[in-house]
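Record type: monomer structure entry
Structure origin: computed from sequence
Chain ID: A
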Amino acid sequence: CRQLMSTAVAVTRFPVPEESRRTSFVGMVMALASWTMLFVALFFAYAVLRLKAPAWPPDGLQPLPRALPFLNTLVLLGSSVVLHFGVRPEAEERPGTLRRCLLGTLALGSLFLALQLAVWVPLWRSGFRIDTGTYGSIFYSLTVFHAVHVLAGLVALAVLLPGAFSGRLVSGRASTVRLSAMFWHFVDAVWVVMFVTVYLI
């Protein structure tokens, strides 16, 4: 009887794996919601500045490039597709799938950041900087803030590599893999909205 009571106490103190996964999922949803509000605030500020401006882009400034940002959109979308195949439960039937997909996603995510630099550097050298006015300040605020999140996503995915190489992590059934994939898909979705809003409209 005493042993049964101690077991019950242990169960009460420490949630079962399913409850732990559910709790971590809810926590990630709440975190993504908070980041969504931050990006919405930036998009709202962009919209207000644009609606108040007599011309957009402001006089004397060239329109933003579209070719590289469009290529970057394809790169980031491709990274999400690759990661999706790695985290599916079916990946468990093919050893090494998660490992390869993580490496592919890391490579594409790194390429995205490199292409972002390829967009920023010429603009900066041409005089389009943060201190050139509201247009420059909101552009760099949006794109740099997003790039920081991409970098955070790359770090989160890189942390999964040891487990993927050892075989401890094989699919998205593991909470760490699933939550990291959720964050990466969120970063991807934000970029698509940003590309349409900032570069196309």
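Annotation 1: The chain has six helices and no strands.
Annotation 2: The first helix runs from residue 2 to 13.
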